[in-house]
Amino acid sequence: MLGKLSLSALPLDQPIPLIAGAAVVVVLLGVIGWIVFAGHLPYLWKEWITSVDHKRIGVMYVVLGLVMLIRGFSDVVLMRSQQAVAYKSPGFLPPEHYDQIFTAHGTIMIFFGAMPFIIGLMNFVVPLQLGVRDVAFPTLNSVSFWLTATGALLVNMSLVIGEFARTGWWPSPPLSEVTYSPGVGVDYYLWAIQIAGIGTLMSGINLTTTILKMRAPGMSYLRMPMFCWTALASNLLIVAAFPILTATLAMLTLDRYLGFHFFTDERGGNSMMFMNLFWAWGHPEVYILALPGYGVFSEVISTFSSKPLFAYRSMVAATMAILVLSFMVWLHHFFTMGPGGDVNGIFGVTSMIIAVPTGVKVFDWMFTMYGGRVRFTTPMLWSLGFVVTFVVGGATGVLLAVPPADFVLHNSLFLVAHFHNVMVSAVIFAGFAGYGYWFPKAFGFKLHEGWGKAAFWFSVTGFVAVFAPLYVVGLLGMTRRMQHYDVPEWRPWVLAASAGVIVMAIGVVCQIVQLVVSIRRREELRDVTGDPWDGRSLEWATASPPPAFNFAVLPEVHGEEAYWGVKQAARDQRRLREEPSYEAVEMPLNSATGVICAFFATLVGFAMIWHIWWMAGLGLLGAFATFVIFAWRDRVEYEIPAETVARFDRANRATRAEALASLRRRAA
Amino acid sequence: MSDTVSQDEGGDQRRHADTAPGDEFGQEDIGAGLRGYSIGLGLAALLTVASFVVLRTQLVWAPAIPLALIVFAIAQMGVHLVFFLHITTGPDNTNNVMALAFGVLIVVLVVGGSVWIMGNMNRNMMPMGPTAPMESGMPGH
Amino acid sequence: MSDATANAPIALRPRPDPNHLGHTGNREGSRAPGRGTGGPAPKRIVVGYGFWVFILSDIIMFAALFAAYAVLRGGTADGPSGRDIFDLDTVAIETGCLLLSSFVCGLATLALSARRALLFQAAMAGTFLLGAGFLALEMREFAGLLARGDGPDRSAFLSSFFTLVGCHGLHVAAGLLWLLTMMAQVLTKGFRADILRRTMCFALFWHALDIIWVAVFTIVYLMGVL
């Protein structure tokens, strides 16, 4: 009846996961209880859970990403403290638990921390920058988000019910085959990633279509803000790469569930094929995460240098070059598996070539700052921190792209330091830069600068303090994922890295304090005009927070930097544009399809993990029924009357007219 | 002169339009559409039959058969794309064709790259060759 | 077109190319909605294009399965190879079924744009029957293999064969379910704009499955018996 599920799935004999799991469950129940009893549930249901507004969904993505980043960071604290004490001793984490922690760290950080954070920013910003009212498929957007949340839920369930994979974040066979991993850990991984991956794929299709087919009148491709270009490249990569992951994980699933022989190394199976296919997704995934990050930095650096982005077209070309090149380098993840000199040589060269467009971007950012009036706000600090750390990480990457060097450094902590150096700076720094930059747009007030700067300095100092020693200890020969070690030369470096984590943790705390302080002082941090940074793209043309319909009338675009042009004209003519004639706006109705689908997806995932076949069937049936009911509905849109639109826009125009007047007073 | 002008207008009409794949551009009556589908069906059937015939007869030099089969398959995919999915070279189809080209590029990279990489790995790592059972190919057995 | 260009000597005028291959036409770019500067595209284009992108991603998923098949087809582990198990007569009938169903599905699209409900339902029913016939033949082939002990757990070759062909079959089955849903939708709701869009997407899906089948029967079956 319940498949493999029984009471022994609960970790009653292991204190650490039991206490951690119990604490999470208690906190979660407490939050849900508070929401229900304080009467917030109807509000949450109507305004957030069933919302198909891209801005709301974007914010929910970012919240999910931030929570999961903290969850992944707690794994870091465990791993670094284990290595700090595990010198010639077993430490406090037994190997089977330690293995689950580093697997969960990688999985959570990539799939449920970085991905939702970046997709959330794209979801929120792209339609606003394109000057349109929503993404191409609003309800699908909600389904995507809730499927991603389902994946995150399944991964975190494994903390309490059963176990997580012990294979590392790419479940390499034959270790991940049922012979060597008979437990449910790998199954948790497979179903969580598969379900979240479907959500990501649909979100990729959605944003690609939005960018290619829905732009404000006059916005040709070469007038799009840089962030939209990088979002386009990133989503094209999602569309092209995630199906490969889906197929690969499906093959591993068939191996585990039905005795297929894709990767078993028995009866003709070939475990190296898994590596090949996994990294054919895995390398584009790096750029799926990094490209939107580059876009955020382009926007932030240009805005806070008060200059247009330097060499916009070279940036576009570099982005598109990376899009194609990122599909030609995947072998550098397994140089040492023996494909031979020819293959290694060619992939080594392509891996070095991909550094060229990235280098073009670094120069473009630096020349954007050159000669500009740079304002050192928190988002700008994150961007500057990124440029410095990313160049170091990129240079070590070019080093690793040389196959002979890779034979020495493969799977050492040098490699670990390299990819954290690039991924954390290009993705997490970008995430926080974008978070600070667009927060006032989303909520109508700015984040507190002091706490933001504190968070930046602690995080970056801690980050360097963690990974600089890891480069050294990697060169000294320490491999990754060691539960204990007994080489005395490594000890000081490992301790230094652990001390760095403490500094980083202070940065995390500052980040949380910043949010709390900003909410409490929101009146003094209020953004009245909707353009707090003197921005250049269209998202700053509407109010903060924007109304559900984003723009009262779709803006007309007459050149690059659409909103800068509008402001320039207003300054020259000393008045705003004529008031447009307002019309009623049709917006899509809220829909519970997404969250109901996610409920059934959770059912299917959980049932498949525990071999409860009837429940899986029930879940699939429920999902199909949900779609049919959605397809049968008669009303899909509601109308916002012209007076409401006009009232909203007039209020916003008044604040901008006031800002223009004060500008003239100051000039006079 | 009037001929060129009318041609220009035809081009102009498509230049300022956008079509989705599968959309019949300016073909609302069944007859004209049916002709396209029938031509497609005929060509596709011809190519399919050709594939089977080439395999079962001695018409083509034996070592060239795989190449012939691939050529027929690609041609048939083209027929499907043009006559069933209405992908054309017109400007209103630019986005559709670009997306298709990107997809084909990725397919070629993934399939070609995998075969090339895995072929080399099998040669280098398994002295017995890929068809031998792995157990006996492993060192130490 | 301005009078100045119209009166220019014919020899100096560039030869008009109706498709504007190789250049984007006029200097200021296209004013088309969607791909040009004319603002957001109409819903029908947006939906069709989004679904087209989905189909391309699906094709890339099949590419990964094809790659696995190409790499593992030699891994027969002393079991049967393609030459021993493939029956080309069945494959020929399957191919015919799917090709005809693609054609009949095209008829359904035409009937839909001409708003002829009866013809539409008949064509969709024909598509269903041909698709179901294909599926039945494929299931018979699979059942035969399983009965002989040549199931997917026999060898890596059979694993990749069953997965690739089975995944296509699964798509056909999902397509049949979708087809029935669309017939019911047109029957109960009539020719509503959103239903027309969905049917267009279904037709795209069905034609794309036929394209994938061309690759399957060529690479798996025909080249498998060489």
UniProtKB/TrEMBL annotation, chain A:
Residues 43-558 form the Cytochrome oxidase subunit I profile domain. Its main location: membrane. It is found in: Cell membrane. GO terms for cellular component: plasma membrane. GO terms for biological process: aerobic respiration; electron transport coupled proton transport; respiratory electron transport chain. Keywords: Cell membrane, Copper, Electron transport, Heme, Iron, Membrane, Metal-binding, Respiratory chain, Transmembrane, Transmembrane helix, Transport. Gene3D superfamilies: Cytochrome c oxidase-like, subunit I domain (1.20.210.10). It is a multi-pass membrane protein. It comes from the Bacteria. The chain crosses the membrane at residues 20-45, 57-81, 101-125, 145-168, 188-207, 227-254, 274-297, 309-331, 343-360, 381-402, 422-439, 451-473, 493-517, 584-606, 612-632. InterPro entries: Cyt_c_oxase-like_su1_dom (IPR023616), Cyt_c_oxase-like_su1_sf (IPR036927), Cyt_C_Oxase_1 (IPR000883), Cyt_c_Oxase_su1_BS (IPR023615). GO terms for molecular function: cytochrome bo3 ubiquinol oxidase activity; cytochrome-c oxidase activity; heme binding; metal ion binding. Pfam families: COX1 (PF00115). Belongs to the heme-copper respiratory oxidase family. This is Cytochrome o ubiquinol oxidase subunit I.
TrEMBL record, chain B:
GO terms for cellular component: cytochrome o ubiquinol oxidase complex; plasma membrane. The chain crosses the membrane at residues 37-55, 67-87, 99-118. InterPro entries: Cyt_c_oxidase_su4_prok, Cyt_o_ubiqinol_oxidase_su4, Cytochrome_c_oxidase_bac_sub4. GO terms for molecular function: cytochrome bo3 ubiquinol oxidase activity; proton transmembrane transporter activity. Residues 1-26 are annotated as: Disordered. Keywords: Cell membrane, Electron transport, Membrane, Oxidoreductase, Transmembrane, Transmembrane helix, Transport. GO terms for biological process: aerobic electron transport chain; electron transport coupled proton transport. It is found in: Cell membrane. Pfam families: COX4_pro (PF03626). Signal peptide: none annotated. It is a multi-pass membrane protein. Cytochrome bo(3) ubiquinol terminal oxidase is the component of the aerobic respiratory chain of E.coli that predominates when cells are grown at high aeration. Has proton pump activity across the membrane in addition to electron transfer, pumping 2 protons/electron. Heterooctamer of two A chains, two B chains, two C chains and two D chains. Belongs to the cytochrome c oxidase bacterial subunit 4 family. This is Cytochrome bo(3) ubiquinol oxidase subunit 4. It comes from Lichenibacterium ramalinae.
From TrEMBL, chain C:
Residues 49-225 form the Heme-copper oxidase subunit III family profile domain. Residues 14-30 have a biased composition (Basic and acidic residues). One of its GO terms (cellular component) is plasma membrane. Keywords: Cell membrane, Electron transport, Membrane, Oxidoreductase, Transmembrane, Transmembrane helix, Transport. The chain crosses the membrane at residues 49-71, 91-111, 118-137, 157-180, 201-223. Heterooctamer of two A chains, two B chains, two C chains and two D chains. This is Cytochrome bo(3) ubiquinol oxidase subunit 3. It comes from Lichenibacterium ramalinae. The lineage of its organism: Bacteria, Pseudomonadati, Pseudomonadota, Alphaproteobacteria, Hyphomicrobiales.
